[in-house]
Amino acid sequence: MCDKDILYRYISSADIDSVKRILGDEPALIEGRHLFCAARAGHYAIVKYLVEYSRISLNELDDQGRDVLHHCALSDNVGLWDYLIRRCGMDPFAGDKDGTTPWELAVQCSSTEITAYMEAKYGHISDYYKNPVRTGMYPDPSIVRVGDDYYMVNSSFIFYPCIPVSHSTDLIHWEIIGHAITNREWTGIDGLDGGRGYWAADISFYEDRFYITATLRYNDDTPHMAADGTGQYRRQIVVSSDRPEGPYTEPAYIEEDGIDPSIFNDDDGRRYMLLNRGARILELDKSGTRQISEAKLLMYGDMKRAPEGPHLYKKDGYYYLLLAEGGTGTGHRVTAFRSKSLMGDYEACPYNPIMRQTDMQAAIQRCGHGDLVETSDGRWFMVYLCGRMLEGKYSILGRETALDPVTWTADGWPVVNGLKGPSVLNKKPHPEIFATTSYKKQTLSECGLPLEFMTPRTFAAGDIECDPAEDGGHNIGLKPSAYPLSDVRCRSVVLRRQTDFAFTAEVSVMIPEDMSEGEEIGITGYYDENTYCTYGIICMDGSVRLCVKEHIGDTDTAYLLDRIEQGETDIRISMRTDCLERDLYLRDKLIYTLKNVYYLCDEGLERGKRFTGAMIGVYAVRSRDVSDTICRRFEEFVYTAGI
Fold this sequence. Notes:
Layout (H helix, E strand, L loop, with lengths): L2 H10 L3 H10 L6 H10 L2 H10 L14 H6 L4 H10 L14 H7 L3 H11 L5 E3 L11 E5 L2 E5 L5 E2 L1 E7 L6 E7 L15 E10 L2 E9 L6 E2 L5 E2 L1 E8 L10 E3 L7 E4 L5 E5 L3 E6 L11 E4 L8 E8 L2 E8 L7 E7 L7 E2 L15 E11 L5 E9 L11 E9 L5 E3 L8 E3 L25 E4 L7 E5 L5 E5 L14 E5 L4 E9 L9 E9 L2 E10 L2 E10 L2 E9 L6 E9 L2 E6 L2 E6 L20 E7 L10 E10 L2
Antiparallel strand pairs: 1-25, 2-3, 3-5, 4-26, 5-6, 7-8, 8-11, 9-10, 11-12, 13-14, 14-15, 15-16, 17-18, 18-19, 19-20, 21-22, 22-23, 23-24, 26-29, 27-28, 28-39, 29-38, 30-35, 30-39, 31-32, 31-38, 32-33, 33-34, 35-36, 36-37
């Protein structure tokens, strides 16, 4: 047995004299696992000795990203817990690689003494929220408060209906209540590649109307042709409504190049639009739908790399400007500037960046693109995008929405979460509100889909039908497309966001009697037309078989499985996901396992614009076009967190 293992044995048995003797002779033997062992066992004296007299450092983490306080949570030694917090400055709110904090771990492990200590000091854990507050593909958040209600919009790219509008009363629980564009003739997204479409929407409120603006991003090879004959890859849309859920007006276009528009309404009634690069400003007319001045640069940025996402606010005689900088990867951040006059000059905040993740091992990464909101009682918060990485490199759920408190320094600058970066666990803004009040007056969008469902690009009337099922799921009817899922012309797939790393999606597939050769129907795990997987049935050589497929770039891989017996009218299939692994079931029988669906994320393929996130849904395709109204049925499609 090596000396390090002997040391570990003495620590496990609480033999402090032997620990002191060994480290006195060979101080370099100490490792993080020795400290963690002592903390898990609650050996206060040994931990104290290691902290104060050995060469150990308290920034040591184990393979799960857990520090000494995480391990102490398992011991229920409240004296040791208090020492580590008060004397060593360990943080009970710091998350491991999965975003689990020491406090949560103590609760999970029924460490009653530590839990009581925390409740006496910080209140009940139920008064705290977890980031991100919106899991799954909810990037580029913009927020506005009207009365006691909060409304938020997010990017939707090529998915239809376009630009979800969500509602909350507590800033934590959100539900989609409508969309900015539901009329398929107004979308402009058909034919666009995945990752194009509607970028970085903004929502504002002006004279009793809600205004939403966003960038419509075209394909590089098929730009929009402007009136002067020039090709435009980006143009801005503006829609408005007197109700946050809509319906909204037909989009008006602002023909100014750039991305990430936002609308600022000044105290004098004049209206402005901001765009990147940096923050450029142009004046709009009273309706907010027509540009009436040239764009002028207010501020390029602080970091000077990829400055975008500008938002402008007015407070205490200053105009405050927020920018997103550093690109939407791990260098993402939020910076702040201010000026006494609208047109500047703007000075940079001395505390920039006011939001950035600096711990590359933390669960929450790529934090940026923030927007501020003030509560009715004068507190401030910021919503911002973030991403959580599996294995440190795969953001399967896409860019999500997080929330953190904002305080204003004595010299008048906004600071997010005390400049500590994104929080994992934080105090609820409105703990007196137990859950958001349901705002929805309807369960279906005007296009006929459930509010949380969408399709890649638009679909023709009658080609898709959705109804609620008795068990809380959905019954879906699809007219099979003559184009595969890899073709942007495919219109026969219905999706919802994947919002959990572990989930189960199941559905009953009705087996058609008239299923044609090459026809497929089933469940799909979908990112875009370039990367997806499918599990369902396929008609081959006159028989119906279970089939699994993976499409990654230009490569298709198929696995033909069991035949479906003649006479069966329906089968219940499910896709049970645990991180990157997907188990495929027929009823309760495991049929196949996809070991690594890494490709369902931004980092899964280097092709085009990959800004979205993994989705789950149903599809139906066939090898020839169908002129009649043939429909394939899916009964009781259900998504459940966990497996």
